[in-house]
Structures are given as structure tokens and as C-alpha cells.
Amino acid sequence: MTPAGIYIHVPFCKSRCSYCDFATGLYQTELAERYVQALVVDLQTTRADELSRSIDTVYFGGGTPSMLSSDQIERILAVVHGRFQIDSKAEVTLEINPGSATKTKLREFRALGINRASFGAQTFHDDELARLGRSHNAGDILRTFEYLRAANFDNVSFDLIAGLPRQTMVQWQENVERSLGLRPEHLSFYLLEIHSNTPLAQHIERGLQPKPDDDLAAEMYKWMLERACNAYYEHYEISNLCLPGFESRHNTKYWQGDAYYGFGCSAHSFDGRSLRWSNERDVAAYVNAIENKRTPIVEQIQLSDDERRAEAVFLGMRLMRGVDTREYEQSFGVDLRIAHNEDLSRFYEAGLIEFDGEVLRLTRAGALMSNEVFAALA
Q: Which residue ranges make up each domain of the chain?
């Protein structure tokens, strides 16, 4: 069996970004400590059947997990190692925002066995950072990256966002060039999504900020792919590139249907077969459930055969290596080419997909139109 991954959600941030729709809130010392204690109990009392599987990735996401103290992270990791069989070469990731950790704190995190940093740069332009409600500036990006290297982090991922309100192609190109100049091992880039009920959505609705230009964002996406690939980064997933050998092992589990277990508020889990479950989204509700010896799980979904087949396609095709149609037929008893012949022919003629023998994959143009492809093949 393929080893599973563990996801640990830390919902605290220094400030609330205007575009954020995640389960996050402002950092409060007392609540953070109660939350860590709840996480420890949740990990200690997890279901026995989850302990039978070995683990080779641990991912602290959020929020801003680096706002926790090294002592708090150490307590969480101690329980993880005590309850699960952790591979000696496990990938252990911590999401870090620029300016959220000192050089000393990063050295302490590295000493705890955290060997990968997911770094929320987003943009190198201070005016754009301010409009997004980010708590850092471009100087913080450079300084924190320098601290990460000094702390011997040799696996660093940068997050960048394209299509920001008022963002020009020149500004985007400057962001990409500055990122490539720092040479992080991994790059995640996202086209800005406007979620309802976020401050950014309200600003756009009230005319305080312009609506992002989708066509320009598409051109930004194409330009970055070409520039990064010319710099010897590999485009291995729709929104992710890496230097050879530095794929996100944890996130790849989501796309290839491996098991992962989520702890913390809003965390999701999958048993690698057909069962999904998720926790309380609200921080206080999650903590109260644990403190009162109740399960924090609020939803369980048993996937139907049709849902499993659909997920195998639209998750698997997020990986640029594509889906092997022979393996798909062996797993589900369905010939993908026959079942979706009309749609596949249409997408092939439009240059959105290609076949390499029996492997079906998105083209670079198809990656930009992936939602349309996935909707038809679901």
C-alpha cells in the first residue's frame, strides 16, 4: 500500500487577506494554545484503523503555521511520531509567510525535522501586497528567504498570484523574474479567484477595485510557464513547477488518490478508497468538541463508483503526466476513450488534450482550460 499523508491545519494569521476564503482567523495567544492542545488530543485519540498505514508526508497548512512557537510545533510532531509510523525520509512541510518567523525560529523549526517550507510570497510589489491585505512587504520576502537558506532549508516553494486587480504584465514578469532569480526548488502559481463574501469581492462589487482581467491573467499564465520551463523548471501539475526531484510529495497524494488524514478545524481526510470525512470548520467549535470529548468530524461521504471514476480523471489529469487509460480500465472496468469519445475528439481537435500511446494528458493550452475539460469528463 502507498504510504499516506498527514495534513495539520493551523488557522491563525497576523492579518486577514482580502481574497482569502480559508478557515482562518487572527492569532490570539490563549486560543492558539488551546488549539494546539486540542490538536494533540485529536492526534492521540484518532481511529485505530488509521494507525495501520505508514506515513511519508506531513504538511502544516493554514493560516500561517509559522506563527506557532517551535515548542508548540514540537509537541504536535511528537504525537505524530508517537501515533504513526513516520518514514525516516518523510517530507515535512510548514507553510510560512514572509516576516512571520525570525532566523532563530526557522533554525528551531529545521532542527525539529521540518525539511520543506511553503512560502507565501504572492507578489514582490508593495502596492499589490497592500491591496491584498498582506502583512508583509517585498523586503520581508527577501529577508525571510535568506533566513530559510541560512537555516539549511534546501526545499523551498514560492506561491505567486497572477491576475491581481490593476496588475500589469510587466509587474507579473518582474515577479516571475525575481522568483527565478532566487531559485526556489518549487513554484506554485495561481490565477486569482474572487470568492463571494470576501473583502476583495466586496471591494470589486462597490467599485473600489477593478475586476481582474481574465484574458490578461491567461497570458500571464502562459508567459510564466514558458519562462520557468526555459529556466529548467518542470511543469508537473496545472499550477505547480519544480526543479527536478522537488515535486510536492504531499500534494501529489491528493491528485493521485492516495490516502491522507487531516487534523484541525476544516481539515479533510480520504481513506484512499471511497470514504471522505471533514472536521468542524469553526475554530471554537473544533476546540470545544475535542475538549468535551466529542468527535470534530461533521461530515462523512461514501463515494459512489461513478464519483470514484470521475475523481480519478479530473484529479489525475491535474498532473501533467496524465492518466493511463489502461490502468483506468483495470481499476474501473470502463474504457475512457470509448465512454467519452465525443468529448475527447472535440478536445483533441481544439488542442486541449493529447495522447501519448495510452496516456491521456492536458496540453499546455488545456491546462489553462482544465475546468471545461474536467466538467465534460466527470
A: 4-255, 305-377
How far is the C-alpha of 63 from the C-alpha of 27, rounded, in Å?
9
Could you give phi then psi for residue 195, rounded to 5 degrees?
Answer: -95, 135
Kindly report, residue by residue over 53-81, the tens digit of the pLDDT: 799 999 999 878 998 999 999 999 999 99
Domain 305-377 has CATH 1.10.132.30: no
Contact 51, 4 (CB under 8 A): no
DSSP 170-214: HHHHHHHHHHHHH--SEEEEEE----TTSHHHHHHHTTSSPPP-H
* β-sheet bridge partners, residue 221: none
pLDDT tens per residue, range 120-155: 888 898 887 777 766 678 888 999 999 999 999 999
Cβ atoms 378, 363 nearer than 8 A? no
Label the pairing between strands 54-62 and 240-242: unpaired
Contact 311, 322 (CB under 8 A): no
Which amino acid is residue 131, in one-letter code?
R
> Where do the DSSP E strands lie in the chain?
4-10, 12-13, 25-26, 54-62, 85-96, 116-122, 156-162, 186-191, 234-237, 240-242, 260-263, 268-270, 275-279, 297-302, 323-324, 353-356, 359-362
* Sequence-separated contacts (24+) of 139-147 with Cβ below 8 Å: 140/98, 140/99, 141/98, 142/182, 143/98, 143/99, 144/96, 144/98, 144/99, 144/100, 144/101, 144/106, 144/119, 145/98, 145/119, 145/182, 145/184, 147/101, 147/102, 147/103, 147/106
The amino acid at 83: R
How many residues belong to the chain?
378
CATH 3.20.20.70 fits 4-255, yes or no: yes
pTM: 0.91
Q: How many CB atoms lie within 10 A of CB 206?
A: 8
User: At 12, phi and psi to the nearest 5?
Assistant: -95, 140
Q: Which residues pair with 319 in a beta bridge?
A: 237
DSSP code at position 22: S
